[in-house]
Amino acid sequence: MGAQVSIRHSPGVVMENYLNMARRYLWIFAEIGFLVVLVSLLVHLVLGEASGGFVKGIYDNVVKFGKDVPSATLLGVAVLMLLVWYIQQRIAENREKQVKRK
After folding, report:
1. What is the pTM of this model?
2. CB-based contacts of 47: which residues, under 8 Å, 6+ apart?
3. Residues of the chain whose pLDDT is less than 70?
4. Other CB atoms closer than 10 Å to residue 44's CB: what's the count?
5. Taking Cα atoms as reference points, which of 55, 57, 62, 53 lies closest to residue 40?
6. DSSP assignment string, 24-88
7. Dmax over Cα atoms in the chain, in whole Å?
8. Which region, left, alpha or beta, applies to residue 98 given φ > 0 means left and ψ of -120 to 50 means alpha?
9. In 3D, which of 57, 54, 56, 58 has the Cα closest to residue 34?
10. Cα–Cα distance measured from residue 69 to residue 67, given in angstroms and rounded to the nearest whole number
11. What span, in angstroms and rounded, lies between the C-alpha atoms of 12 and 7?
12. Residue of 56, 33, 29 whose CA lies nearest to 43
């Protein structure tokens, strides 16, 4: 009798899909940025001073960052990243077990 709203097209689901897509794009952008920095560091290690201004600039910024940040802070960030990775792995394992039960 009345118009039925599809669950797929409800505002909450549409927004959740949009946010998931935006999250994926942001992670891809962050991964590409990390790879650019990593490749630039490797190029600088191989070519040295002949690697160019862009690569040298990235290398100088990474070295300056490493010197300016206390080692305890870097260690703390590394431990937090390891903890987050471990928790994500455990959550993924639990989800897989729940899917297999169904």
Report:
1. 0.62
2. 55
3. 1-9, 102
4. 21
5. 55
6. HHHHHHHHHHHHHHHHHHHHHHHHGGGG-HHHHHHHHHHHHHHHHS-HHHHHHHHHHHHHHHHHH
7. 76
8. alpha
9. 58
10. 6
11. 9
12. 56
Q: Note the pLDDT of residue 88.
A: 92
Tokens 């590409």 locate to 32
Q: Which residues contact 36 (CB under 8 A, 6 or more apart)?
A: 58
Q: Which amino acid is at 14?
A: V
| Structure confidence at residue 1 (pLDDT) | 47
Q: What is the sign, positive or negative, of the torsion defined by CA atoms of 67, 73, 77, 78?
A: positive
Domain ranges of the chain: 1-68, 70-102
